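During the second half of the funding period, the structural biology subgroup turned its attention to how the target accommodates small molecules. The most pressing case was 3-isopropylmalic acid, which had performed well in the primary screen but for which no bound structure existed. We therefore specified the complex as follows and requested a full 3D prediction, including the ligand pose.
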Amino acid sequence: MDLHVLTLPGDGIGTEVTAEAVRVLRHAANKFGHKLTLTEGLLGGVAIHKTGTPFPAATEALALEADATLMGAVGLPEFDNAPPERRPEKGLLGIRKTLGVYANLRPVRAYEALIESSPLKNHLVRGTDMIIVRELTGGIYYGTPRGITGEGAEARAVNTMTYTRPEIERVTRMAFELASKRRRKVSSVDKSNVLENSQLWRKVVVEISAEYPGIELEHILVDNCAMQLVLNPRRFDVVLTENMFGDILSDEGAVLAGSIGMLPSASIGARRPNGAWVGLYEPVHGSAPDIAGQNKANPLGAIGSVAALFEYSFGLLEEAAAVNKAMEAVLNNGRVTADLKPSGTPATTSQVGEAVCEAIG
Ligand code: IPM
Ligand code: MN
């Protein structure tokens, strides 16, 4: 199969973890006899430095051309006080919107080998296996009006949380489709005791659930969900939620798995005529400028995103399974970075990438 993949390493540790993800992608493509074509583009802070904008038109064109996009991370402290339009994060929001990747899938699994790295007691976290389905192209991240007006005591800031029925419908269907292949339970997260937005969310989710009779649906308020994630994470199978709630809950979910460095994500949109999904793949972690350039970031979130890329954008399930299995083997061998290794000599970023390739065979 021809695989045309765009890489956007971005900022901070994004370049290091993407290099390892690409190493694994090349290795697996080669092993399974696929022809891999790689292009590379600029996104985030590095793009602002080189072109003056976080999401240059050239990157947009490359993304629309490729079959799938593999991203590292965006964000640099020097832009912390820049207005939203001139921040690296704006580039990420831009590419998500351009590709129309409305469903962000963030699997949270407690690997047995990492059970000691979780901040939760073993008996609470053992067996956790959920997927967070985060709406990604709507809600308060994109709603208008937005902005800051006035000065001094007159200063006023506004953001708008907005959802339309079709936006809720499509991401809900995605969650139910996933649940039908898992443990058949959807937990829809909202704040319907306060927000009209959540009231519409809940109403539409209930209506769509009627299309999926064999699947259990529960509603859970976002504050309670944050608590349940640490009290009883095993109760969750598919967690469906809007953009900002999903951003927050997925960081919380990430540490259950031992380290935020572990979490991959797949952002998917429409299906192409051949049935594969348009997709943007990225680790859940940020650019971590404090450890950038030191070859010590955990690349497994990025490498797990390669597995997701095989699965969703190419329908290559065997290749995806090979990458996931190799990651587990590496975890079991303890060839892991410092975030997962409180004592003993940690592996470097590149050693982890090499170990995954070896384990693929
Ligand atoms: C994430 C990140 C992004 C988000 C930032 C970098 C814009 O935190 O992917 O979770 O909030 O979506
Ligand atoms: Mn986030």
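Two results from this model are relevant to the next phase. Residues 14-31 form the longest helix (18 residues). The chain has a mean pLDDT of 96.
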